[in-house]
Amino acid sequence: MRSFRPHCARVGQFRLRQAARWIKAGGIVAYPTEGVYGLGCHPRLEAAVLRLLAIKKRDINKGLILIAADFDQLREYVVPLDEEAMRPVLASWPGPFTWLLPARPSAPGWVCGNHETIAVRVTAHPTASALCRAAGTALVSTSANLSGRAPSRSAVDVRKQLGTEVDFLLSGPLGTLHRPTPILDGRTGAFVRV
């Protein structure tokens, strides 16, 4: 366990750059999203993802969500569906909808879990989107809570549940969703999580 407090910041360009540096260096960052606080890291850095999973006490086989500022940040991880199937996906973004899309063979197993798909979202939340842009990458994004506990809805909740396990904490307002985003299967359009 770390002996220092995570940095806590109101969102501004300086703080976004600090958070982005933590992401690029393999750190874990907490930040507001559409419905709950997210916990994120760089998806290509295995040690960071494994640490995030350990913090949450989450099974690696479950897979993780990636968020991005735009679809281009997701292209290296997913295989787009045909034009007709992609239409509702792209129409819902940016927005609070997470979609399961086929994973590229090069997508990291620690992100996919034991699935052939990856859950992805182009976020509409200004802080989460700005963090993806500042880091220059999509982010692993999971709710900032221990598995089995309620998702954090404030910076105080993040500190209570995760303490010093988080390297950097961007505080700010949540979106209006009040719960984790729904997940839909891009191949069928069916809801997987409401």
Write the topology of this structure.
Elements: E1 7-10, H1 13-24, E2 29-32, E3 37-41, H2 46-56, E4 65-68, H3 83-91, E5 98-102, H4 109-112, E6 117-122, H5 126-135, E7 139-143, H6 155-162, E8 168-171, E9 183-185, E10 191-193
Parallel strand pairs: 1-8, 2-8, 4-6, 5-9
Antiparallel strand pairs: 2-3, 3-7, 4-7, 5-6, 9-10
Helix pairs in contact: 1-5
Question: What structural keywords apply?
Answer:
single chain; 194 residues; alpha/beta; DHBP synthase; ten-stranded mixed beta sheet; 6 helices; 28% helix; disordered N terminus
Report the helical percentage: 25-40%
The general outline is globular
Q: How many domains, as an integer?
A: 1
Q: Please mark out the parts with pLDDT under 50 across 5 or more consecutive residues, or reply none.
A: 1-10
- Give the strand tally: 10
Determine and state the CATH class.
Alpha Beta
Please tell me how large the radius of gyration is.
Answer: 15 Å
